[in-house]
Amino acid sequence: MNITHSKVQPFPHSPPLHHHTFPFWSKSFPLPRKFTPTPIKKSQSFASVLYKKHTLLSYGCFGINKSRIRCCVSEVEEEQNQNPVVVKRAYPFNEIEPKWQRYWEENRTFRTPDDVDTSKPKYYVLDMFPYPSGAGLHVGHPLGYTATDILARFKRMQGYNVLHPMGWDAFGLPAEQYAIETGTHPKLTTLRNINRFRSQLISLGFSYDWDREISTIEPEYYKWTQWIFLQLVKRGLAFQAEVPVNWCPALGTVLANEEVVDGVSERGGHPVIRKPMRQWMLKITAYADRLLEDLDELDWPESIKEMQRNWIGRSEGAEVEFSVLDSDGKETDTKITVYTTRPDTIFGATYLVVAPEYTLLSSIVSIEQGESVEEYKDISLRKSDLERTELQKEKTGVFSGCYAKNPANGEPIPIWVADYVLGSYGTGAIMAVPAHDARDHEFASKYNIPIKWVVTPNNGSCIESGKAYSGEGIIINSSNMQLGLDINGLSSKDAAYNVIEWAEKSGNGKKKVNYKLRDWLFARQRYWGEPIPVIFLDDSGESIPVHETELPLTLPELDDFTPSGTGEPPLSKAVSWVKTIDPSSGKPATRETNTMPQWAGSCWYYLRFMDPKNSHELVDKAKERYWSPVDIYVGGAEHAVLHLLYARFWHKVLYDIGVVSTKEPFKCVINQGIILGEVQYTACKDTDGNYISADSAVELGEYVQEIIPEERVVKSGEFFVLKDNPNIRLSARAHKMSKSRGNVVNPDDVVSEYGADSLRLYEMFMGPFRDSKTWNTSGIEGVHRFLGRTWRLIVGSPLPHGSFRDGTEVTDEEPTMEQLRTLHKCIAKVTEEIEGTRFNTGISAMMEFINAAYKWDKQPKSIIEAFVLLLSPYAPHMAEELWSRLGHSDSIAYVPFPKADPTYLKESTIVLPVQINGKTRGTIQVEKGCSEEDAFTLASQDEKLSKYLDGKPIKKRIFVPGKILNIILDRQNVKVGAQ
Question: Which of 4, 502, 533, 716 lies 20 to 30 A from 601 at CA?
Answer without folding.
Answer: 4
